[in-house]
Structure prediction request, 321 residues.
Amino acid sequence: MTIDRRQFAGGLSALAAWSSVASMSIAQDKGREPLFVATWNFGLPACQQSLKTLEETGSILDAIEKGIHVAEADPKVDSVGVGGAPNSEGVVQLDACFMDGATHGAGSVAGLENYPHPISVARRVMEKTKHVLLVGNGAAEFAKSQGFQQQELLTPEQKDKWLAWKSKQPAPPPAAPPNHDTIALVGLNAAGHLAGGCSTSGLAYKMPGRVGDSPILGSGLYVDGDVGAAGATGIGENVMRYCASFLIVELMRSGLDPTAACRTAIERIAKHERKSPADLHINFLAIDKQGRWGAAGTDADYRIAVVRPSVAKLEKPFLVT
Ligand code: SD4
Prediction:
């Protein structure tokens, strides 16, 4: 399943210049250009939309939201928004979070059904409520009260795949689901304002009600306006038990560059788990307030998108083995 999406998204890579982690980890801010970095190949059109929105509106928050909309709206991205893989009962349940580094404000939704843009609902939780996280029916009721439009999220293609999967399943569902991908998108404007968002349909065929790392602040995403931002993709259970995005930001605060911070977090998790990194399926990205970016992961096909006014490319992150 992921292979299909990556193959689709892989077409974009023809447009992109590839560069190595060596150049990434020492990438320096050139005169404070805005910067957007996102997970996976589908992060490239998302970051390009973020830059366009920033140029049009001047708002880094709008830029993050509209960038993530691109992945959420694309039915071929089979792990985010419309066309996302359903849970084991055939229901698409979406998770998202949004964070503003300037105010430390944040909003999240988990297990949201029938709304194609959970990132917007998460942002609205931040802006319109006193709360941070709304789940399930409560999140849907809130989305309705805010005027968001409902939409069927399960595409015929995903339904067929789910039915095929279900016909082969003994209960309970398998421990190792067949796909994992999420968009985590972080950005910095020319004034040094940091923000980020994360959106996913979670692990394919997850248990109904299962919530992963993506809507959990500090796990799937964390933004500290004084330091930097980090985001995650992969098996959420291996991320959220270590508050990995928070850990990466704290490692940057202590002086590590973004790639070293991502790499150190993975190494720490692997050591604790007494597992080979390749068995963890955890992949991270980070940017710092100086405009440096970096990433590290345990999956060989992990890529990040990097977009600035002068740059639009996919990079191969540091692979932790
Ligand atoms: C989750 N982390 O729900 C998400 C899924 C994901 O790459 O990112 N997959 O666990």
Remarks:
- The chain has a mean pLDDT of 89.
